[in-house]
Write a structure and sequence with these properties.
SH3 type barrels, homodimer, 8-stranded mixed beta sheet, 13 helices, 5-stranded antiparallel beta sheet, Fumarylacetoacetate hydrolase, domain 2, 2 domains
């Protein structure tokens, strides 16, 4: 499953200068997929298939028109002509892999293909600042897991301190169906939701703006070929059904959630909006950064056979450094930059993406190409790795102090949350996910 | 909101003879919408917009081609040209209302329009037995409520007998997001799902075929115009966002559900399949059968203002008689007909469809045209109104005895479940929903 090839070669550099900067998320070794539009394209409303390279967007749709792509890669470009990546992803990972290979050669500053593309750069490259980035797929279904065990323990400790982790946690990759319609690309403002709060058996709830608005740091992944209803995907093959990854913010209204969620789970407390970063970092680009799945303590049960795959145990995890920054109205007015409040890593997931996908289909549920699956909040074991305000402030009781002296227990109007993700490993070029940003408005 | 017109006139009869039979679900006063294909249409793969009339399907797509529809009704037919009703529903209730009016006139045995259509009947009518009925919309999102209070009490009694109804129940129209991808039209076989069962804090679960497979008797309704993200629909207008209703079977694996659902709600226990009856009975056709919302005991709280609408309280309920029939392999082998095991009525819903829809949007969640919303299991207060096997058999402890002596605690392979729904009221012609059928296969 883990194959390294010339696209991962750390010596490969690009004729797009910004792609060779050490701090870019998008060196030639990454090449994530997205959907964009731009006033620089006529008509400006049309959506093209793009690949991020340094500070630019490489127009895959135009590259195909110019005859720069061939075979499966040309087909891959055509499959995105509707302005979403669903049809491309429906073909599984092979066309995406071939496209990434050919685009890598086209952007290489030492190849003949690169020389040819470079001559056409005016028609192929746009500054990302001149592009609008859209959802990469039309998300037919969105599922959110609960695979961050440190999050589950931290959240459970606030509700049921005597028994923080549910009895099923180490057996079942717990998940719920999220709301597909309200998934939005990074940058979309988040309106503070209204909802019922404060109810209890002996007390009437009130209805109004959420007072405990929060974020959750997650990763998302996109389904490729999908499966037919009634035909589960074995865990050993599940990785092949995952085309790529992004960052995901599962905005949550804690006061609404607490009151509404028994017995059927979260509903209005989460369906007012979910943000994703616009670039799909392919599973191929992430190959160098795979790692063994989280080590289970000896006292933990082994996964049931339908969730057990030795290969996945070796490569099921991903080493992605994750960070959360916050900026407030007052900070921006004072010229202060966003401040980092959380630092975590995707390696803390108890269940691997392959296990999540296999479990999702194990009862027969069909996954459709382009469906979005969230991992659940990825907290780590230390204080600064608690990846939501609920956890970080211990249920709002220990607010975070910001550089300008402001305090935050939960999000205020004007607060902006930014996620980043970076993959680093000796011998490889660092790649990143771009950002997932959302600002709260009243 | 409740408007009666000539389409409800009990004296109107049709030149389609089967529509005048007293036991038909589809007299000329009904005219429900659906999507069908037929070998009688060339090409057989094309999906046409149809309206049920007696034992026939009236081809709306063809009627438009023949010039029988005009104005908004002609536009309504065009909006379904993609083979789904999503685009039609996106226009709100007006085009559907006008189409139903014009088709009523076309099928009338005493009108000039009817005479004209009757002359073209060979091109307009197909026996329903020669048609395949599809999902009426491409279901982008499916939400399932929990609005049957007798179900909530019965189910809660099995889990937490000391406190059967959750503390939030009389304040919050509880719901969860269901799985849109696995919604299927009536007649689709249901494969018995595998899943984890029997786990507990001190006991390992096993994985295998569900041993406690069940159904839930619900109604579904379809979203019309939808709303933008962040813009709630007031309860007083919510009825206008509901185009029509169907029957819905929320198949459930009770053993899987019990183990997996804490804390985030049902997931694999329900996402292996949901069945809907194929005909959308329009809100217009149901106008004569609206009734006051369920009477709340004086000790119950009044709905919060965002859920309170005096008009909806007068007309929010629907008087739909609901029944569940079961037939087994052995019964069919012995030539025995399906036996009725449950009889209920939609009037037992604690929350009205308008309240459900208003609540759904109250935090800002966007509903899309053609989205499907389930009411939750509609049990009544008496024993034979308990509308799932879980309730009817008291958690499987008191099996139902069938006419041939077989017993059922939960569903066996080969068992077929059929829902029916009928609306009766003095002074009006009875209308029905057709059937929602599913058979269990291994």
């Amino acid at each position: 499953m883990i194959e390294l090839d010339a696209t991962h070669d750390p010596k490969r550099t690009s004729w797009v200068d910004s792609a060779n900067a050490p701090d870019t998320d998008f060196p030639i070794q990454n090449l994530p997929f997205g959907i964009f539009s731009s006033d620089l394209i006529a008509p400006a409303v049309s959506r093209h298939f793009g690949i991020a390279i340094g500070a630019s967007v490489f127009d895959v749709t135009r590259a195909k028109q110019l005859g720069l792509l061939e075979g499966l890669a040309a087909k891959a470009a055509d499959l995105a002509s509707a302005g979403t990546l669903n049809e491309l992803f429906a073909q599984g990972r092979a066309p995406s892999r071939e496209l990434r290979k050919q685009v890598s050669a086209l952007l290489d500053d030492k190849s003949a293909e690169g020389e040819r593309a470079r001559a056409l750069r005016e028609q192929l490259l746009y500054p990302v600042s001149a592009c609008e980035l859209h959802l990469p797929t039309a998300v037919g279904n969105y599922t959110d897991f609960y695979s961050g065990i440190h999050h589950a323990i931290a959240a459970g400790s606030l509700l049921t301190p005597e028994n923080p982790l549910p009895a099923n946690y180490k057996w079942v990759p717990i998940a719920y169906h999220g709301r597909a319609s309200s998934v939005r690309p990074s940058g979309t403002q988040i309106r503070r939701p209204h909802g019922q709060q404060g109810g209890a058996a002996d007390r009437a709830p009130t209805f109004g703006p959420s007072q405990r608005l929060d974020f959750e740091l997650e990763m998302g992944f996109y389904v490729g070929a999908g499966n037919a209803l009634g035909e589960p995907v074995p865990v050993a093959q599940a990785g092949d059904y995952i085309v790529g990854f992004s960052l995901l913010n599962d905005w949550s209204a804690r006061d609404v959630q607490r009151w509404e969620m028994f017995p059927l789970g979260p509903f209005l407390s989460k369906n007012f909006g979910t943000s994703v970063s616009p670039w799909v970092v392919t599973a191929d680009a992430l190959a160098p950064f795979r790692m063994p799945a989280m080590t289970r303590p000896a006292s933990d049960p082994q996964p049931l056979p339908y969730l057990h795959d030795p290969v996945d145990q070796r490569h099921g995890g991903i080493d992605v450094d994750l960070s959360v920054k916050l900026s407030t109205d007052a900070m921006r007015a004072a010229g202060l930059p966003a401040t980092q409040i959380i630092h975590s890593n995707a390696q803390y997931l108890y269940w691997t993406p392959a296990q999540m996908l296999a479990h999702h289909t194990s009862g027969g549920c069909d996954l459709l190409p382009g469906d979005l699956i969230g991992t659940g909040t990825i907290s780590g074991p230390t204080r600064d790795q608690l990846s939501s305000l609920l956890e970080l402030t211990f249920g709002g009781t220990q607010p975070v102090t910001l550089p300008n002296g402001e305090q935050r227990a939960f999000l205020q109007d004007g607060d902006e949350i930014t996620f980043h993700g970076r993959c680093q490993r000796a011998g490889f070029v660092t790649i990143g996910f771009g950002s997932c940003v959302g600002r709260i408005v009243a």
